Amino acid sequence: MTKIATRSFGVNISEERRFKNVVEDFLSRVQCRPPLIYLYIFNSLSLMRSYAISEGLKHGVSTWSLIEEFYAFHDAWTGAPRILYATETLEALGEKAGLGCLRHEVGHAVLHGELEYYIIAQPSNSKILPEAFYLITVAIKDLEVSNLLFENGFIEDQVAFFKKTVEKELSSQKTLWPIIGGNYKLAQIHLASLLKDLAFIFPFKANPKFQGEIEKVISEDLSHLPLEVKSNLIDLVNEISKLKLATIEKIREATRLFENELLFKSM
User: Fold this and answer.
1) Domain with 105 in it: what CATH number?
2) Which end of the chain is less crowded, N or C, counting CB atoms within 10 A of the terminal residue's CB?
3) Does position 170 have pLDDT exceeding 80, yes or no?
């Protein structure tokens, strides 16, 4: 049985209990569970993000990955899986997507709750930027978590979470590619970010009920890309999804494929 050690920051007891119940329900459905999960609940997104950055600095971890507007965090810097979540996430994303976000983080705690998953070295022969490599590591871990969620029946909330996050990116993306498409460094970060989006949602396409809805959002997410780049990116996700490797080996192979099958062909 997993011990869930909660710590709240400006959150009342009933809210704390509610989110802990969501975590407990998720854990009751999966076979492999860590012995301990830390669950930190904040009353605002800004406080949660500030705390994540300060913790990164304290543990000597690059905080580049923390500047994105994530709605929750997961780490294992203290030696056990830890989730940071904010009550404002429900307000920002809506009830269904907000709880989907929390379950996604619990999935990481289950699958990636050890320090080795947060100190992954970029392959020595890789030429991409560290920021792009980081996004590829996130893409692979998100793909694994989504497979776990799909297998355990958490589908509708994950589709809602995906739609909300993509919707918030669309307005800026439509004008982005003409600006960064000719800049090799900026383009590889942007394509790695889109790979992360696609890897997250890919397993849920297997559900006929949501397939059309997912395809529509993916089409909107990639609508700013040239046709060839879009096709290469989708092919890459399909190839990565078939890899039967341990997480870290999968990340290394995905990095190689990203460079050879996407950047080499698209740039």
Assistant:
1) 3.40.30
2) N
3) no
